[in-house]
């Protein structure tokens, strides 16, 4: 189970690192033109940049604390934080009637929930 949690956390970390970096680097106008990017028009540029930074911190939190065995409790906490972000993302995309993107967000949410539940357990890193 530990190996499966590491693999899932690693893949999610890569996804959130890339998504967060895109939100930080790419201007809001260009993000809005991307497929499924219309949601950015509902939010300020500052919010989008903040969201990108939080996603990067969450990605780091999924891997680094456990990898270096420094405060590994931060891993499930990072997963819970990213789950909150994905819950919001699923709500936003479903309100915009973007069902494919809502389902993708729910898939990420399910994977993050697996990591959170697995890492909160008594044998979380064994």
Automatic annotation (TrEMBL):
InterPro entries according to UniProt: DoxX
One GO CC term on file: membrane
A Pfam family per the record: DoxX_2
Primary location: membrane
Superkingdom of this protein's organism: Bacteria
Membrane topology: Multi-pass membrane protein
Spans traversing the lipid bilayer: 6-26, 47-67, 73-92, 104-121
Localization in the cell: Membrane
Keywords: Membrane, Transmembrane, Transmembrane helix
Presence of keyword Plastid: no
Protein's UniProt name: DoxX family protein
């Amino acid at each position: 189970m530990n190996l499966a949690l590491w693999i899932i956390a690693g893949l999610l970390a890569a996804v959130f690192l890339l998504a967060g970096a895109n939100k930080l680097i790419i201007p809001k106008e260009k993000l809005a033109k991307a497929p499924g990017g219309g949601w950015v028009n509902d939010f300020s540029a500052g919010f989008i940049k903040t969201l990108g930074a939080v996603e990067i911190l969450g990605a780091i939190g999924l891997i680094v604390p456990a990898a270096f065995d420094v405060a590994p409790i931060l891993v499930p906490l990072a997963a819970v934080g990213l789950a909150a972000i994905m819950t919001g993302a699923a709500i936003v995309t479903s309100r915009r009637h973007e069902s494919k993107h809502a389902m993708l967000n729910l898939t990420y949410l399910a994977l993050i929930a697996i990591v959170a539940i697995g890492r909160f357990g008594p044998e979380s890193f064994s």
